[in-house]
Structure prediction request, 335 residues.
Amino acid sequence: MLDDRTTAAHPPTWPTAYPEGYAVVDVETTGLAREDRIVSAAVYRLDARGDVQDHWYTTVNPQRDPGPVWIHGLTSAMLADAPLFAEIAEEFAARLDGRVLVAHNAVFDWSMIAREYARAQRTPPVRQRLCTIALSKELGLPLPNHKLESLAAHFGVVQQRAHHALDDARVLAEAFRPSLRAAASGGVRLPLLECRPLTEWVGGSTPTIGRQTSHRAGGSSGYGASWRPSRKRPPCPHPNPGRYEPGGALKQGMRVAFSGDTSVERELLEDRAVEAGLHIATSLSRLTSLLVTNDPDSGTSKTAKARQFGTPVIDEAAFGQLLRDVEPADGAASG
Prediction:
């Protein structure tokens, strides 16, 4: 592990609503599946204005094959004496505590971190995250794609060791600082998303992690190999007010469909929408008010139908912002 501290000059003004600090994170893993493990992790802590305060790096023994060594460069021999995640969980948590987690494609890094903490039967102390891909979209940066190397090149940041957690975190921290300052200068609302930790470890010889639900009397709440339990939702009590108008507000009763991966667990995102008075549509039709997808060019049946029907499409970050202020249905009380 290593630790270093640096300082930089602060700009004169700053939006008061912005977070007070950030933890720029990168993790390297044994693979991309839910059962995969972290093999290395790095955190650059930044202050409210994006200046580096310190950085930290560790390898992690995944207790299994290290996976794509040709990508992250960490062999079984190199990881044999590395600490287990449970042994670095407290120090990792101290780096995240009270800060917004920043990552490039944050859905992946947060998912891996949340699963590792669930395996260790601990809760990571981070409640919000920011994806630099979403921020680059908010800023309208002229990038050819959403790769970290493209974001780095845009800001003149030199990559030294791609897919090394410490160097990737450094590159992202250096690219995030000017992005953050551009957002502050332009009065851009940061695309912050909620981090809801996984809270249940399901026992057995090959345990899985699931979202915590109420326990059945005399039994366990394990879901086997399923990531979340299936269930029926009660019908939405509000009439469909029609389509979402881009630039406007959501209204109770609107029919919202989702397509593709989301950084918040899909069921949790749907729960928030239902709590706000929206209707979750499992398919897309002419009556659908809005499609939420992080990949509108994916070519899924829902995105194809959205183009066919002219259904408005927004990404998850924008949807999360709109959920903060959903208008009441006609005749319904506000709040």
User: Anything to note?
Assistant: The CA atoms of residues 103 and 131 lie 5 Å apart. The longest helix spans residues 165-186. The chain has ten helices and 13 strands. The longest strand covers residues 38-47.
